[in-house]
Amino acid sequence: MTSDTTARALRLLSLLQTRREWSGSDLADRLDVTVRTVRRDVDRLRELGYPVESTRGHAGGYRLSSGTDLPPLLLDDDEAVAIAVALRTAAGGLSGIEETALGALAKLEQVLPRRLRGQVGALQAAVAGITWEERGPRADPALLATLAAACRDHEILTFDYTTRGGTATPRRVEPCHLVASGTLWYLLAHDTGKDDWRLFRLDRISHALPTGRRVPPRPVPGDDPAAFVAGRLSAAPTRHRAVATVRAPATSVRARTRGLGTRIRPVDDDTCVVDASDDHLPRIAQTLAGLDADYTLDADPEVLGHLRATAHRTLRATG
Fold first, then answer.
1. Can you point out the beta strands (E) in the chain?
2. What is the pLDDT of residue 2?
């Protein structure tokens, strides 16, 4: 029988954090104590500020609910290492939450045992990331958390959304999924005012407020949120048109390029069409340069002018 009251309470807390609900008898078996002792230990956790709920009856039990303050979490070795590596990765590669991730990482590493700090350092030293282009619009961590919770709970949200033209309009949506594409984050949601699925860039959302009204989950067309978002993005209007007919198989072009998704369409076994249209002229040039195959180009005059100017600068630099 566990005699150390503090150790037993910490073990109880760890169990409550691993499952949504426990019966008193299950907890007693795990801790090798009586159900009455479990009740006393639960009361001790409540005195320390942990919001442990209990229900009576045959199906009754205990669960750790959300409270007004964030209590300490108990992590095993593998969980602590995984969180530390994830925070370091976010601090170096996820636009908009670097400082938040670094602050959380500093708190965690301060209490990590020396053996775990060594594991985290070794993992981080062995992993490297490369940024190929400029950082995109910043993602607000608080907004990400609000939207993620609304997606999880199927709770209707209201917010102001700034369109491509710079006009802010109020929206009321049923949030479904958050999808990252390159350096941008998108909210996939069903717009109740337009009765249709819509994509919303997070850097254009402001004043997001949960309404408290929950609705049944709405299935995404095709049952694949990422594929649905990729299809919508590829069909979205762009400022500059650039479509290349590439003398290479679609599979090989897709393997050499990033983020084009449904914009690569096979014509036959040896040819494909790549829609490199974009709002940003340098990004079009970057996409075309990455094709690594001969192609013919159907593009707007400003695209052709930018490509010629880029080619001339390159020739002067190498001449």
1. 52-55, 61-64, 155-162, 168-181, 184-191, 196-201, 205-214, 242-246, 264-268, 271-275, 295-299
2. 44
Other CB atoms closer than 10 Å to residue 152's CB: what's the count?
A: 9
Please give the C-alpha separations between residue 186 and each of 129, 172, 202, 295, in angstroms, as whole numbers: 23, 16, 6, 32
pTM of model > 0.70: no
Kindly give the parts of the chain with pLDDT less than 50.
1-2, 68, 132
Residue 180: beta bridge partners? Answer: 185
Dump pLDDT digits (tens) for 88-127. Answer: 766 555 556 666 666 676 667 766 777 777 777 776 666 6
Task: Write down the H helix ranges in 48-140.
Answer: 77-93, 98-111, 114-126
Q: What is the largest CA-CA distance in the chain?
A: 86
Residue 159, beta-bridge partner list:
171
* Residue 271, burial from CB neighbour count under 10 angstroms (0-12, 13-18, 19+): middle
Helix (H, G, I), strand (E, B) or coil at 96: coil
> Are 124 and 154 within 8 A, CB to CB?
no
DSSP character for 114? H
| Residue 132 token pair | 């190929």
How far is 212 from 172, CA to CA, in rounded Å? 13
Cα–Cα distance measured from residue 264 to residue 235, given in angstroms and rounded to the nearest whole number = 12
* CB-based contact 277:236 (threshold 8 Å): no
- DSSP H helices in 156-294: 225-235, 250-256, 281-289
Cα Rg, the chain, nearest whole Å: 26
Residues 6+ apart with CB under 8 A from 270: 247, 248, 249
User: pLDDT tens digit string along 204-224?
Assistant: 999 999 999 999 999 988 888
